[in-house]
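Morning - dinuclear copper ion inputs below, output right after.
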Amino acid sequence: MDSFNPVTPQGSAINDLWLWALFPSALVLLLVGGLLLVIVIRFRGRPGQPDPPQVAGNRRLEIFWTATPALVLAIFFILVVRTMRTVDAENPSALRVNVLGHQWWWEYQYPVLGVVTAGELRLPAGQPATLQLSAADVIHSFWVPQFGWKRDAIPGKLNLLPVQVDRPGVYDGACTEYCLTQHAWMRIRVIAEPREQFEAWVRQQGQPARPSGELAARGQQVFLSNTCVNCHTVAGTAATARVGPDLSHLGSRSILGSGVVENTPDNLSRWIRNVQDVKPGVLMPAYQTLPSDDLRALVEYLEGLK
Ligand code: CUA
């Protein structure tokens, strides 16, 4: 996570502004600090010396040190407003993604593409996107340092975060508004990929995943006959609840629980058996009484949802 290495035009604009502010500020610091040092050494009082001449007021100096900072501030005001306009500029053809903060995970809905996912945000590289931020419970904040800026996700309010990720890659971020127990593990992972790859992903996400094999088919029965269906959706089945993350393509994601662990069968098994061991405080109940055969089948089913 590196905010000095932006991968969006928005982040570059903010970085440029920061550099523009840094150099004059450093100059002023050196000038004031240097003068202070020279004066303190050169004009220090010595024993037996009379008081120096006392002066009051100097119109020319006062005009200088009022006008100069006013001018500098005016220039920065213009630069800041210009940067804000660049960063906030919305592209009407941008890909719109609803980003919904939950305690403690992120939901991503692509209304036009008909895709809903969680944990990982996929974006096409080099194309404008507008993240439409909101929240389901309390205030969260969406921060990916390499995007160069962040915005709050507030319940009942829509905040827009235009971004265009120019460099394909994986960019991590975090929630930056304290939202109770698992705030620290409300991580963000953004995968920016070339257009064809992104489109292939959209096509794959648009198809319901089918259980592959006998064990997975049994896992699907376990899933549908337990309370899993009270909270989760799996496309193409009777499970359509929207309380927890959409699991339709869980097997295609690299992380579980907003990044608290990698998505492996072992970790998923631990998660289902007793989630409080993996991420204390989350709202999902433990399934410690689930027979281990059923658990194995369930994990096989969920991990097969690609
Ligand atoms: Cu969500 Cu902190």
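Note: The first strand starts at residue 95 and ends at 102.

O.
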